[in-house]
Recover the amino acids of this structure.
């Protein structure tokens, strides 16, 4: 069985981080904590590793994972453009529970799946994971669960579902919130005829807080559930919860 490292123990933390770095470098998978739920991670630039991540979860290329980054400088390298409103979102909510979908930098050599030219990016508010991201670079990270099952909020749940498909498990205790990130689609702010930010999944950041930052750039609140976005409406990499890839 793949090892679990209790990262609240200093000696296990050092061993676990070393194992995780090496595993990512070899194109293997690692389960790690975030400030929302646990995630299953792979090198975002290793096509085989990303395919292995999707296979471990039991999902296909039509549901590509988002990417976790260590800071705004990495975001700038991954996306084609950062509109002023997205800068405002990042200043207010990063690190934290907001995933932002933007057009990807076209020169990047990667394959996250059927993204249709977009990428969903988040900077997590989790010290251990940020330290790992500083060393590994961007990681494709999906919620640590099998498709159709609840996202794991502790390491035991993740291990029960993912088993030996993962090389190492980094345990930081029960997730701080257990609420997945909010996903917003900001692609229409980049050359869109009608600039608007759409909420693809409601989660850790409420619509009310988003509207405080975005004002009228945020889509109108849905009248009822029938008005909420569906997987068919959402760009790849960012669909509502059980279909959504990210922690």
């Amino acid at each position: 069985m793949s090892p679990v490292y209790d990262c609240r123990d200093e000696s296990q933390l050092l061993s676990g981080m070393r194992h995780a770095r090496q595993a990512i470098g070899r194109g293997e998978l690692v389960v790690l904590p975030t400030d929302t739920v646990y995630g299953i991670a792979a090198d975002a630039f290793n096509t085989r590793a990303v395919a292995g991540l999707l296979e471990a979860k039991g999902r296909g290329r039509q549901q590509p994972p988002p990417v976790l980054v260590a800071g705004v400088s990495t975001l700038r390298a991954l996306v084609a453009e950062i509109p002023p409103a997205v800068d405002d979102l990042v200043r207010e909510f990063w690190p934290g529970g907001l995933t932002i979908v933007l057009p990807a930098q076209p020169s990047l050599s990667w394959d996250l799946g059927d993204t249709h030219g977009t990428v969903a990016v988040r900077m997590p508010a989790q010290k251990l994971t940020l330290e790992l991201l500083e060393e590994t670079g961007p990681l494709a990270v999906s919620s640590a669960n099998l498709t159709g099952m609840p996202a794991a909020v502790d390491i035991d749940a993740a291990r029960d579902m993912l088993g030996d498909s993962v090389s190492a498990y980094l345990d930081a205790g029960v997730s701080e919130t257990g609420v997945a990130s909010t996903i917003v689609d900001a692609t229409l702010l980049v050359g869109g005829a009608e600039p608007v930010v759409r909420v693809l999944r409601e989660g850790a950041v409420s619509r009310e807080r988003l509207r405080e930052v975005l004002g009228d750039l945020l889509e109108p609140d849905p009248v009822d559930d029938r008005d909420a976005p569906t997987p068919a409406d959402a760009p790849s990499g960012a669909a509502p919860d059980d279909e959504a890839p990210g922690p």
Notes: The beta strands are 4-6, 30-32, 39-43, 67-68, 98-103, 118-122, 139-143, 168-171, 182-185, 198-201.
